[in-house]
Amino acid sequence: MTEKLYYYISPWLYPVMPEASGRTVVSLDFQALLYDAVPGLSDNDALTLTFDLWYEGSIQNTEVIILKVKDGVVTPRHINRDYGLPGYGYLHMTLTTDVPYFAKLEFEKGYGLLMRPGGGFTTVLPQAKYAVSVIIDNIKGTGTFCLVHPAQYMDVKHDITDSALLLNPYDGPLVATIMNQAGKKIKEKIPSGSARLISLEPLLVDGQQTCIMYSGTNRYPGWDVRHSRSNPDNIYNMDHLEYYRSNKAFRKIKTSLRLVNTGKRLLRQMGYIR
Amino acid sequence: MTQINTESINATAETRKCGDGADILCVCFGTTRDDVREYMSRPGCSVDDMIQETKIGTKCTACLLDLDITLHDIQQSRGSGSAVDRNSHIENLAGSTPVEHLDSAFFVCKDGIKTILRIANFTPMFEEGPESVAHNYTLWLIGEDGRIAVTDRGVIGANTQIEIDFSQLAKCPSQGWFLISCIPTGPGFYGTLRPQALLVGDTWASSYHVQPQYAASNVYRRLSIVIKSAKHLTHSSLYIFNGERNGGKIIVEVDSRESDFHGTCNAYVAANGMCVVDLDKEIASFPESECMLVTVESETITKKYLATVQPDGQWSADHFPTLP
Asked: What ipTM goes with this model?
């Protein structure tokens, strides 16, 4: 059986914040990443790694690095970079080659880091531009692209608020729709090649957690950004928005597996295992 | 700098709605879903010919996902152009088993910090539909010593949400880890049910996802995470919890990706317990400002979270990634 191989991986997108919020650090170990993505880690002297830094519809900076694989060793192995912008943008990372090479379009990524000016950091998970199986299944199962965060939060007295950072890495503009469980909506147009930090305060209730969902005229990556109300550049935490998951609640499984799972569940309910 | 000319794209772009056959599918070339359906209904048509003629998906490629779904629908319904059947999962349940989701994460309820677990159970964009189904839940709070301190049970109804403030649960330990089991009561989707933990302090709030308990590992994956030092400090702690009935040794290795720096420390995690490793306390001195890989080797299968306490007291937390 022939295994299908690809010439490229789905590009990765890292949010890049204003300098006042901190610098986005990207630290990648290509020995580990390619070991997982390339069967046998075969020789290749022309893996093209491209970093494009996007801001308000244009590329601010491009860097191209050629990776080589020889006898299972990737050179250079580690790539460390850090980025900042005047406002919100993103880093677009592509990895391509001129022969069928990668076993999958989308594979495991490490975290980026947002290094805060005063010290400390928060982790930032990059998102894939295409071919995310959870999103494909989401749309196939429900007909609606949908992201969700069940716990967005604002507390005026304690200077806590919440925003969403949404990217549009595609060639056309998109309109994002953000909605809370009471039916209140925000719509925001995001130009091509841009990022927007959208305050969720119109949808939040002071002191309460709120479930908020995201959709739009196209799919897009998004992050939950928790920050100070008085100083929005002071970011406490960033996390990717969760996907609506079209995993079926009931599935047909083998009787033997069902028995094992039932047994484990009983033992767990009785406190014997965790 | 490369400036993208969006004028021609904007001139032809229309606001799209999912599921509406008249909508634009490919913004770059103005191709609608109806165009695709019409083309594919021609005798002897092929996808390659359609793409060659319409150029759909050959420019920005953002529509390829939608095209794939549209072609899938056409194949399923063959010319009827029907929208996604949202009832397709309401099936004959004979022989079907409810899928239990068992997730875990750490928690902290001390020093002015509380942990609140939030589980929402809604349909996509809160629309009417059959996707949301009630789930029975069981929550266990487990202390660092591995003992179950609290058990809480309930139901998350369809199109509802629940919030559990751990600090309000009697006998909640000051810190530890928790297991949450959700089991559906009928057909539907898991949907929005993935629990989110919110850490709330006096002047800050952070949230993190739970991870499936089966993601616990001590080989190959989920062993490492990247951090970066600043002024010789990492401000980071590892929360390592153990789902096994045996305790085990923990070895933490920290290797710089920019120099020869290597640091290591040892710990022990009790059976079903949790240990906390404060990197700045356990390892003498870090480089001033370098990217480093933290790897946790454990005798038992463990789950790992990284918590960073910023110099001003704010927390940020995340689970170890699924990296090899």
From this structure: 0.93
